[in-house]
C-alpha cells in the first residue's frame, strides 16, 4: 500500500509545494523514523516497504529524489538501480542508497549502477539532510 505523508499547511492555508522523496525501506522502524524526519524538514514523502511496487510509485508520485535500501523483499535495491537508469524519464532522478551493507564492494556496485551517494546505517541524519539538499539543488531542471 502506498502511503504519502503530507507536509503541514502554510499559515495562509495553502499547501506548500515541497520536493517529493520516495523512501524505499523494508524495516518499519527505520522507515517511520526517516519518513518523520523528512516530513519535519518539509519534504513530501512516499514510503514503500518493498521493491515490487517501486515502478508504479515512480510513475504516480514522480519523486525528485529516491532514498533506497538495498536489501528488500521482492525486488532488491540493486535491481531497482539497474532498471531505473534504463528508463529515460527517471535517469536524472538522484538515488541515495541507505543500507546496512557496509562492504566497499557493495558501495562500489551501487554507485556503478547509478546511485549518486551511499550511506551506511545507522545514518548520520545531518549528513543525509545535507546530501539530499545538495542533490536536489544540483539536479537538472
TrEMBL record:
<dbReference type="Pfam" id="PF00072">
    <property type="entry name" value="Response_reg"/>
</dbReference>
<dbReference type="InterPro" id="IPR011006">
    <property type="entry name" value="CheY-like_superfamily"/>
</dbReference>
<dbReference type="InterPro" id="IPR001789">
    <property type="entry name" value="Sig_transdc_resp-reg_receiver"/>
</dbReference>
<feature type="domain" description="Response regulatory">
    <location>
        <begin position="20"/>
        <end position="136"/>
    </location>
</feature>
<feature type="modified residue" description="4-aspartylphosphate">
    <location>
        <position position="69"/>
    </location>
</feature>
<dbReference type="GO" id="GO:0000160">
    <property type="term" value="P:phosphorelay signal transduction system"/>
</dbReference>
<protein>
    <submittedName>
        <fullName>Response regulator</fullName>
    </submittedName>
</protein>
<dbReference type="InterPro" id="IPR050595">
    <property type="entry name" value="Bact_response_regulator"/>
</dbReference>
<keyword id="KW-0597">Phosphoprotein</keyword>
